Amino acid sequence: MCKALLIGGSAGSLNVLLKILPGLNKELGFPIIIVLHRKPGKDSILTDILSSKTLLHVKEVEEKEVIKNDTVYIAPPNYHLLFEENYTFALDASEKINFSRPSIDVSFESAAEVYNDKLTCLILSGANADGARGMVYAAEHGAQTWAQDPATAVVSVMPQSAIEIVKNIKIVQPEEISLLINALASNLESS
């Protein structure tokens, strides 16, 4: 059973997200939280782009916001995204990790402590190893771990780094990801 899906990515990941979102069921029964490396600044362009591709509600995370099912949350730029035991978000402006804020590692680790084996983590295209160590930590807490096939990534470093160090990681093709997410919603085991 999945209670939260975290998706991490950087360079080249937006293209994959735009393929995933249109295929998702409207009622998943869990939230999707997207942590992308983004430039600091206040704009809603990413939210608007993703909203146009899905029937799910899409919004940028706000401090202390209660996490709701059937919502796509986007980590705001220049903050680490953390998860609280009471299923709310926390935003942290501490130093960058892997040259990034938000750091995918930080979010994966924080979510793993709250959701344990009810968490699924997906890493997409990107130019550094952010997310790999967080996925190891999440896997140790029982989370499912998926990585985009590096051969399909615009920049393969991020998924390849995760594949090299995460045990039992599932390598996924962009065109099958929405089906796998919908299967999580149906409580089906995706092999």
UniProtKB/TrEMBL annotation:
Gene Ontology MF terms in the entry: phosphorelay response regulator activity; protein-glutamate methylesterase activity
E.C. numbers: 3.1.1.61
Keywords: Chemotaxis, Hydrolase
InterPro entries to which the protein is assigned, alphabetical: CheB_C, Sig_transdc_resp-reg_Me-estase
Pfam families: CheB_methylest (PF01339)
CDD domains with a match to the protein in the record: CheB
Active-site residue list: 10, 37, 130
Cellular component annotations (GO), alphabetically ordered: cytoplasm
Domain CheB-type methylesterase intervals: 1-188
Catalysed transformations (reactions): [protein]-L-glutamate 5-O-methyl ester + H2O = L-glutamyl-[protein] + methanol + H(+)
Top-tier EC class: hydrolase
The UniProt record lists the keyword Manganese: no
Top-level taxonomic group: Bacteria
Gene Ontology biological process: chemotaxis
Protein name per the record: protein-glutamate methylesterase
Source taxonomy: Bacteria, Pseudomonadati, Bacteroidota, Flavobacteriia, Flavobacteriales
